[in-house]
Amino acid sequence: MTSDSSRPMAPFGTLLGVAPGNVPVYSSDYDSADDNELPNRHAYRSYVDGIFMGYKWQCVEFARRWLYLNKGYIFDDVAMAYDIFRLTSARLIADESRLPLKSFRNGSLRHPEVGALLIWNEGGEFEVTGHVAIVTKVLPDRLYLVEQNVGHQVWKEGQDYSRVLDARISEDGGYWLRCSYGDASVMGWVIQTDNDLHAENIEPENPALFDLQIRHVPNKGQASRAWLNVANPAEEAFVDMMGGHKLASRQEDDYKYMVMTETAERELKRATNELHALFMHATDYVLQNDDLLSSFNIPPALWPKIHQSWDNRRNQMITGRFDFSLSAQGIKVYEYNCDSASCYMEAGIIQEKWAKHYGANEGEGSATELADELIEAWKNSDVKGVIHIMQDTDLEENYHALFMKRTMEKAGLNCKVIKGVSSLRWDEDGDVVDADGIKIRWVWKTWAWETALDQIRSECDDDEQRLRDYKTDVPRSEAPRLVDVLLRKDVMVYEPLWTLIPSNKAILPVLWMLFPDHPYLLESSFELSDALKTNGYVSKPIAGRCGFNISMYDGEDALMEETAGRFSHQDQIFQALWKLPDIEGYRSQVCTFSVAGHYAGSCLRVDPTLVITKDSDLMTLRVIENDDLIDNK
């Protein structure tokens, strides 16, 4: 966050002042962070008495630290600051009991009080995340607060607050606050109290709003007419792969689509944001524990490179994809594909063009902002020079590569597509260059890291010591290979090597251990427990992909469904059985996209079987108003 103050910004970690309650406030000017003092991501985690407060020095970290030091309780982890407004309890550290929290809208008849959490909506100055501060003084015409991550200036001598907001008491006694920033708005305040007079009524949503519904468009012969623009290389590649202008492979699906409610989309957004944060917590935890890391079946020779990738805080993900079950039974996540190129073009372009051509006009598309979010992420990626898109010759990878090339170019990046590695060579400096002699420094790949590692293992004869000793910066008489590019220290790869950890199914038991009974998670284990046997379970290869080698068992340990594939040699994890909802014969899985760590849209995969595979169709998904779904039940 920035400030309009004319005073100079203090470097990251500088003490800005001390808040009432004797709690320090620090600068969070990340651009000035010292890599020597903060050498890795773990160094950015803030702990007090061994309790995780948040990330240095964000607004949520300060709010939790202030409450802990002054009140002895903290609120639960949240993905975005505005999510605090929906919390109904806090955790008292002394005995792990729960204390009630009540939320009051801006303008409430119950006024804010000292120690209350002030919450901002997402948008404007607080785009994406919202914001939280601690109230320190309440007057009829103004309110004093303390906060982090808004401005990074040292406070004036004698000052014990961060900002002052204008306030007004309306004729009916409501307390109204105006934000210092004209493009941001205060949502309200959260108070630890059991008195719910004037509080927001925060109740679980109607479960029926999470059901999907199938809809049909009239058959007016739309399927017989072309509707994708083959003059666009990405769309031409999609048509080539599909064998025509169609979204689904089955002819009977040409005139069908599904809908979900705005409430369901809002909950998917919350789940995506929160789960991304949880997966990042778990990734850091694994990388602090070699015993756990050994469960991921990654060659130990690569561990230092994975640590190096994770420790480089600038080595960020661009995007990933979650797989969810969404129904009245709840929202459950199956896994996080942090390293997958699939479904982006279908969700961001194809399904919207399908809806326009076929006349599916109700509601809005489920991923209308996905392309724009990707463009923004690439703008913020710090890529300098040419970024090379590396792909195989597979037809599907053609349109994945061309779609991402389009978003990169719209972000102002210069990019080139390379198919395979046969055109690569060494230059006189010992660098790997493309066919035009351009050094390869930045790479986005359609290969998953596990697929690339299989090839890298083969290139090193599956020899652990050879892989450990292999020098990617030493030119040889042979042409460069994949390992010479993807594992080279001075090449930045997207998605980064550390995404091997959250993409691996071995992360699922780790998550369950760290966050047991979390509402979005399914019980998962490295060993098949009696509880899983009793309730049904799914066996998954830890580094599997595309729905390969999945086995599903019911509560009597009888095999319900299984898929073949090339990952049968992998170790397995076991996850609680949670069947995809059956929507008129379609087992339906909602996939959400995280871009730069937050929700950016969704799409729908369908299959007549219980397992979604690489051959499962994508069906157009539309977001409609709640009443439009309930009225059709």
Major sheet attributes: 9 strands, antiparallel
Helix content: 10-25%
Averaged pLDDT: 92
Number of helices: 15
Total number of strands: 34
Please provide a written account of the structure.
It is a single chain. The chain is of the alpha+beta class and 633 residues long. Helices cover 23% and strands 26% of the residues. It has 15 helices and 34 strands. Strands 5-6-7-13-8-9-10-11-12 form a nine-stranded antiparallel β-sheet. Strands 16, 17, 30, 31, 32 and 33 form a six-stranded antiparallel β-sheet that branches. α2 (233-242) packs antiparallel against α8. The two termini are 45 Å apart. The mean pLDDT is 92.
Layout of strands and helices, then pairs:
Blueprint: E1 15-19, E2 23-26, E3 45-48, E4 51-55, H1 59-71, E5 73-74, E6 89-92, E7 98-105, E8 117-120, E9 131-138, E10 142-146, E11 163-169, E12 175-178, E13 186-192, E14 213-216, H2 233-242, E15 256-261, H3 262-286, H4 290-293, H5 303-311, E16 319-327, E17 330-337, H6 344-358, E18 364-365, H7 370-379, E19 386-391, H8 395-410, E20 414-419, E21 425-426, E22 432-433, E23 442-445, H9 449-459, H10 464-469, H11 482-486, E24 492-494, H12 500-503, H13 507-514, E25 524-525, H14 530-535, E26 537-541, E27 551-553, E28 559-562, E29 572-576, E30 582-583, E31 586-595, E32 598-607, E33 617-619, E34 621-624, H15 626-630
Parallel strand pairs: 15-34, 19-20, 19-23, 23-24
Antiparallel strand pairs: 1-2, 3-4, 5-6, 6-7, 7-13, 8-9, 8-13, 9-10, 10-11, 11-12, 14-15, 16-17, 16-31, 18-34, 21-22, 25-29, 26-27, 26-29, 27-28, 30-31, 31-32, 32-33
